[in-house]
Amino acid sequence: MELNQKNLDNLSNRISCPEYDRKSLATGIVHIGVGGFHRSHQAYYIHLLLQKDDADNWAICGVGLREGDRNMYNVLKEQDGLYTLVTQHPNGDIENEIIGSIAEFLLAVDDPQAVIDKLASETTKIVSLTITEGGYNFNPSTGEFDFENPDIQHELRNPNEPKTVYGYLTAALKKRRANGFPPFTIMSCDNIQHNGAAARKMVLAFAKKQDPQLASWIEKEVSFPNSMVDRITPVTTKEIIDYLKNEYDLQDKWPVVCEPFIQWVVEDNFSNGRPQLENLGVQFVPDVTPYEKMKIRLLNAGHSVLGITGAIHGHPTIDSCMRDETFRKFMRGFMDKEVTPILGSIEGIDMEDYKDNLEIRFGNPNIKDSVSRICSESSAKLPKFLIPTLIENLEQDGSIKFATFILAAWCYYSDKRINKDGRPTEIIDAMAVQLHEAARKTATEPLAFLEQESLFGNLSKNKRFTELYKEMIGKIYGDPNIKKYMQDVLGE
Ligand code: CS2
């Protein structure tokens, strides 16, 4: 049976379905960047809210800005916004439920004006974003807005032809201001420290260039809460689609798999109202900084540590890395020796418990989170997840050997594009070509990879770091059987 509104009644005999009347939903939230994570996290919370409370005006309108969003658009259109969330517990238990909180979907490349109008509509109170770490359009090493981007230049010259999130947000805010409507809140849900502040800085930089008066209005009126979001959501595989078909006779073209853990900590700073999510476990706090730093530096960086070494070794998934003691210990060593000292203590958090729990989450054998998902877009991830830890440790004379090893391994991975057994590794990265070109020079210029300043700043000038990096490059390039060097780093 195909998943769509018409079949919901029938399906509700065999699987948990929305109990709210989907026809009366109104979209108070417009979400840009509907992928797996949005659907396992925010859309799930909103679904819980709709199940429980009379909150019909907080449903979601999804927006895809890029051509690459067309598949998701097509599937969700066909399925009336419905999809199955498959929660995989470490002990093998599975929970399945159909989520109904995405009530509408717009594809900007087909109809830019419809997206502007939706954003500008008085009923839109919050615009939330999962546009990925790379989507913010800032230079990773300076943190400044990148005006060189041709799409940005196009929309600055043609404000009525937006292309990026910045063009759309400003076009809509301009319209709201002209109509005398209050602005929406811009809520970033990406893994960037101070994600709200980063979004604010970028929106203002763009708006100032385009329309300084509008920029002052945004500065005064629009709120950009910071948030920490968390739920591991692997790429959907055919096995899951088949499982739903076999188990429930349900044809869902794009279900979402996730772990049972879920967390959302948000600053209570909304300019135009917000849904009452506090009863559903969302934590509203005055300052999210310590939580987001902890999550990004431990979970996301921990993932990258396993992903890059795992890819070279030939582990296909994060849980297979975790079953390999060297990898587990290396990841934990990185967390204990390099991250924990710079995090200090965080009120209400037992750091050892948090890390133990991360080990359990990473080890969940039923999630099968591929190392290729983790390694994808490393050029946007490592400058936010791992390099800041290395820099802080250099500043305070802390341990740097784990993080340095990862950068040397990343260079090897970008250069060779094969694992230790000669099998090709797929590099999915907006900077794949540049990374490869820079890494390729390593054999004759050992520091060549680090000379990409937009990623590494001036790390290539730091002698303590470069000495160690060169030593590790020498080892990995000599023999890519990296496990033994991981053991060296661990002192085993
Ligand atoms: C991962 C994240 O993409 C990555 O590198 O670390 O997607 C991670 O799974 C989520 O942030 C978990 O909340």
From TrEMBL:
Mannitol dehydrogenase N-terminal domain: residues covered: 28-278
PROSITE patterns: MANNITOL_DHGENASE (PS00974)
UniProt keywords, alphabetically: NAD, Oxidoreductase
The organism of origin for this protein: Flagellimonas flava
Pfam hit, one: Mannitol_dh
GO biological process, one term: mannitol metabolic process
Keyword Oxidoreductase: yes
Domain Mannitol dehydrogenase C-terminal, residue spans: 287-470
Similarity remark: Belongs to the mannitol dehydrogenase family. UxuB subfamily.
UniProt GO molecular function: oxidoreductase activity, acting on the CH-OH group of donors, NAD or NADP as acceptor
Listed name of the protein: Mannitol 2-dehydrogenase
Record lineage: Bacteria, Pseudomonadati, Bacteroidota, Flavobacteriia, Flavobacteriales
Keyword Disulfide bond attributed: no
